[in-house]
Amino acid sequence: MQQIDETILSYYDVLIRRSDLETLDDRSWLNDTIIGFYFDYLERTRATKLSSTKVVLVSPELTQLMKMTEPEDYISIIGDRIKRDTDFIFFPLNNSEERMDMGGSHWSLLIYSKTEFACFHFDSSCNANAEIAAKFSMKIFAFLGVARAYVRSVHCPQQVNSYDCGIYVLTFAEIILSNLKTVKKIEGCNLDAAERRASTKRRDIRELIRILRSSPAQAVASSMTIAAAAATAAVAGAAAAVTTAATQTSPTSPQAEPPSRNYLGILVANFLRRPSK
């Protein structure tokens, strides 16, 4: 008898099942559902709190659709989710080449910065997604009408295994969001704390899901506590660390990782979700 894939949490338009939760086990690869959930959570609890700064965190599903679609057709799939006056746009980038399939083998983080006229690529596995990031960046620039923009591959902490790429995407995104509270740019963001924070990220997300299941109000308070701790760690790290330098690099051979799962059986309408103000 086939076992039912139990629903663990319904968070706005994200439905987390037990099979999704299992990707948070040690030595497992995060799937698009967990990455999409945490991006949605960060946008609702962190990005919307950044005064005078417009930040959007795009879901893995919508990122994949945009990556495999020509810029002139973007408006039909994203509506007004992304606008030209958006200051920063975070994309979880997968190396899958299928329009409706998230079954790739590696995750990285791409961030568009309006004020810096650039896309910044953070890859924890030797720039395995560099070529994909460059091609997608050109589409973003074309859609937003940005001329003379450039793509920067950022020197960042590297995973020491073949399965933590998704964890590093979430860790980088969280640290950079915290940095945007005081420094309204991407270049020069200190990521020295990423390795330490990535080591507990699976446990932290599991705990967040547990709190959200029991009490959404407690989750908001928990978010504030985690954010305060992150800010303290960032300040302490900055005092003793060398700021990462963003330099242009060329792609290298990727480190093979098992494919992420395909959870793209949802409507395009769900891609257009936005946090409540």
UniProtKB/TrEMBL annotation:
Q: Name one GO molecular function term.
A: cysteine-type peptidase activity
One of the GO BP terms on file? proteolysis
Q: Which InterPro entries match?
A: Nep1/2-like, Papain-like_cys_pep_sf, Peptidase_C48_C
Sorted alphabetically, which keywords does the UniProt record give? Hydrolase, Protease, Thiol protease
Could you tell me which PROSITE patterns the record lists for this protein?
ULP_PROTEASE (PS50600)
| Hydrolase keyword on record | yes
What sequence ranges are listed for the domain Ubiquitin-like protease family profile?
14-176
Q: What Pfam families does the database record attribute to this sequence? A: Peptidase_C48 (PF02902)
Does the keyword Iron-sulfur belong to this entry? Answer: no
Q: Where does the source fall among the domains of life?
A: Eukaryota
Show the SUPFAM superfamilies listed in the entry: Cysteine proteinases
The similarity comment for this entry is:
Belongs to the peptidase C48 family.
- Put simply, this protein is called Ubiquitin-like protease family profile domain-containing protein
Origin organism of this chain? Bracon brevicornis
Species lineage, top-down? Eukaryota, Metazoa, Ecdysozoa, Arthropoda, Hexapoda
